Amino acid sequence: MTTVETAAPEDTILDVLTLGFVADPIMRWLYPGSDTYLKHFRTLLMRFGGAAFDHQAAFKVRGENAAALWLPPNAHPDEAGLVAHFEAVLPPRVLEDALVVLEKIDAISPREPFWHLAFVASDPLAQGRGYGSSLVNHVLTRCDADRTVAYLENTNPANTPFYRKHGFEVIGEMQAGKSPPIAAMRREPR
User: β-strand 4-6 against 58-61: which pairing, if any?
Assistant: First the structure.
């Protein structure tokens, strides 16, 4: 049985998430070079999902092979910080499309209180062991008990079957210019 624990930014979960997203289509569109990805991805993690640490909603599996950043109801990404980061590091052609995608994400996000799965990933060497499912189910159980919606932006189409297995359904797609598509996915409480 996989044990899910609350994580702190000092834990290695930022390393695990960095490894887990290394081949993600959106992340590598934003940061196509290995050097730029490794230099800037952690900033994106903290701007988009860092509030999870403030709300004790950052989780890891024992052994730190997988991690998730969940934003509880009324916790949100640091949009101003994310935009400032993008403006500082992205080339103009990518920046314009990235800002449009952020606007589309904001427009499609649920309006009622919801749990937002900002990031979940396993170390590539630990994939297929059920760690991601444990991290997702850890909060979905609470969503069901509290009758709260869960929501995510799926940045990799290969992950759609995984999220559907957990009850998420595609509610829309965000894309701008040459960006890869992102699927907005929602799960109603059970």
Answer: antiparallel
